[in-house]
Amino acid sequence: MTILAIAGSLRAASLNTALLHAIAGLAPAPFDIRIYQGLGDLPLFNPDLDADSLPSVTGLRDAILAADVLMLASPEYAHGVSGPMKNALDWMVGNESFIDKPLVLLNASPRATHAQAALRETVRTMSARLIDEACISLPLLGSGLDADGIAADPALRRAILAMLQCIRLFS
User: Fold this and answer.
1) Which domains does the chain have, with CATH numbers?
2) Per-residue confidence at 111, pLDDT binned at 50, 70, 90?
3) Which of 22, 31, 62, 119 is the most exposed place for a label (fewest CB within 10 A)?
4) What pTM, to 2 d.p., does this model score?
5) Residues 32/3, Cβ–Cβ less than 8 Å
6) What is the pLDDT of residue 142?
7) Rounded average pLDDT over 47-73
8) SS3 of 52-118
């Protein structure tokens, strides 16, 4: 099962990216977690541009279409979805990549409820199929954990493995 994982932060030390790396490291067979690295390469969304002529946009679309499941982990900035994540989603509105795509939302800061609510609304509007049972919030903010630390923490490890089991059952 191929999962395309996208972190909504461009920060090198992003907790969301660390979470995705921890998940990739913990995922048992048959999971193949692919972490998307091109969020910062997408141009600012402009509907006047031909998305099919932009390699970064078509690359993201093709990666989403090739995945069995999509996993999004985005920080919250000023009570909203991060700009890079929103930009990527805007580029995908005009194509079929999200239609009935099983999708999981991850939250690295349980207090960040506004961005999660906005992401839910956006991806539902785009016709993705949220796997609600697999959407989780983990208390990583202020933990000082990197990907290895997240994977080594017994409670976080259990939550991640349970989330992956839900994906297997409900996707």
Assistant:
1) 2-170 (3.40.50.360)
2) confident
3) 62
4) 0.96
5) yes
6) 85
7) 97
8) HHCHHHHHHHHHHHHCCEEEEECCEECCEECHHHHHHHHHHCCCCCCCCCEEEEEECCCCCHHHHHH
CA 106 to chain centre: 7
Structure tokens of 134?
């697999």
Confidence (pLDDT) at 130: 97
Structure confidence by residue, pLDDT tens digits, 123-159: 999 999 999 999 999 999 889 999 999 999 999 999 9
The C-alpha atoms of residue 54 and residue 30 are separated, in whole angstroms, by 32
How much is the average pLDDT of 80-103? 97
* 93-114 exposure pattern, b = at least 16 Cβ within 10 A, e = fewer: eebebbeebbbbbbbbbeebee
